[in-house]
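ZP: hey, is the adenosine-5'-diphosphate complex queued? I don't see it on the tracker
AM: it wasn't, my bad. submitting now with these inputs:
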Amino acid sequence: MTVDAQKETRGFQTEAKQLLHLMIHSLYSNKEIFLRELISNASDAADKLRFEAVSNGDLYEGDSDLKIRISFDKDAKTLTISDNGIGMTRAEVIENLGTIAKSGTAQFMQKLSGDQKKDAQLIGQFGVGFYSAFIVADKVVVTSRRAGTAAAEGVRWECDGDAEFSVETVEKAQRGMTVELHLKDDALEFADNWRLRTIIKKYSDHIAIPVVMLKPIPAGEDAPEVPEDEVINTATALWTRSRSEVTDDEYNEFYKHISHDYSEPVSWSHNRVEGSLDYTSLLYLPSRAPYDLYNRDATRGLKLYVQRTFIMDDAEQFLPLYLRFMKGVVDSNDLSLNVSREILQKDPNIDSMRGALTKRVLDMLAKLAANEPEKYQSFWNEFGQVIKEGPAEDFANREKIAKLLRFSSTHTDKADQDQSLEAYVARMQEGQEKIYYIAAENINTAKSSPHLEVFRKKGIEVLLLVDRVDEWLMSHLAEFDGKSFQDVGKGELDLGKLDSEEEKQAQEKVAEQLKPLLDRVKTVLTEQVAEVRITHRLTDSPACVVVAEHDMGAQMRRILESAGQKVPDSKPIFELNPEHPLVKKLEQESSETRFVDLAHILFDQANLAEGAQLQDPAAYVQRLNKLLLELSH
Ligand code: ADP
């Protein structure tokens, strides 16, 4: 006996153990899904064999009739799922069934909430399909052999759901994998012909290869000499069938098969394209974001088939990054079976498919927004941040993406991002030429910003941008529906036709009169500010700070600085409200020290109102206390 053939016992990784435990204890409310998971794995294994056999036909070992066979033994309390797919070597078995060392396991474990229902969904998303066997079995025996290896190179893996598993090399005539489940006493219902058929029909009808069971012998008939198999499922690739033939349930189950997501998709789009390019696509919009949506290394992309043969998972060339949450299948009739990722990257045909698929997804989303606004809103809450990457990445579709965006707004009291740009434009006032927005750290800072005062007074709506990506997004959206965007915290306030001629003249006159005050304040704050001017954007506050028109926005600056990035120095503009009693007091202040103190305090307060940090908080407190003491004298 070679060393390799020896039986060895190994321990699961800690995280694998925890997951296994969770699996067994949190999924028992829907036990039957284990069968779907195992059939799904068997189907993937058949796909992989077909793919490898394209370049090496020997792998079929003379048997290219791929199928999945289900059998049970009531007395022995076993249920067996067997496939003649690609199979695994001993090393692969240890790797695939012995560790759950997938990247992000730790991150995943942190996400678990203790709420059984939610956790069960997460587990599905994480894709621990095989381990679901332990929902119904207290012992699982796997025998497997990699296609193209000798019969003596089979492997037997055994585990009783505890901390350890064993592996040994065994003879196995048929390639592929056999999973033998030793059913728990409370899972004996699965050793039943009718029950199994119902489950297979329900979850696995879409599987492209036959799922077979022993044909039952009608009462009164003799058993045939060779037992007959009966095919339970439809056994054609779902996307090759015509839309009218496929039920919603089948679409839903197929989604779960390809996505490892337990929840149902929001919608799908199934299309056959003929012409210069010939392909079928089936695209799904998931209802929930995967836990690793923002992980740069996370897998994404569609499942690629060429003429019904599986080629690869996660073919990311077919959709842009900002649509990375989409799941689905592309089956091309033009690509070569030998196509690789490198070839996909260079093929101009892929670019045009990508263009068409992108358009399809954007249309799907637009349709959802128009027809089912509530569903669209929950889509937005899950994936809106990713869609916001769109205008920067996909210049050509900027208009379409802009229509999909949703923001918080002064139009509603809610913090929800639920207002579209179209709705904003429809509500614009007569004479309003721009779409106004404010960028702030959070919704409360945004709402209480002094910059909104004049807009409130005049009843003009302002969008409240509080996501980190927002200012960056805005820098890629020059306009919408012919209207440019204006950050209300930037540049000179210009309400265009919203201010009357008289108002403008009156404002100029006041600015003229207060020139000496402005110069005086500028001298005091010369280190801190670029300019001091009169403003009409304030009603209640005495002063505010504004960023120069072409400088970086305050919110963006804070984000970059907190990320440790160097940003170019720029001083804000300090604006005073001529109507405010404090400003009037400042103008009349005869004591130079008190003037200096008050000017500093007003400037510091204006910064605080923006959610900014003061450069010298202690000096602010001292000045303020000094004034307070004077008051009490
Ligand atoms: P997932 O399917 O999400 O990768 P599983 O735990 O279900 O996770 O399976 C782990 C791995 O074991 C699979 O990725 C595959 O490589 C291998 N595997 C599982 N079932 C089979 C099978 N029937 N034939 C060949 N390999 C399999």
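AM: back. The chain has a mean pLDDT of 89.
ZP: great, adding it to the tracker
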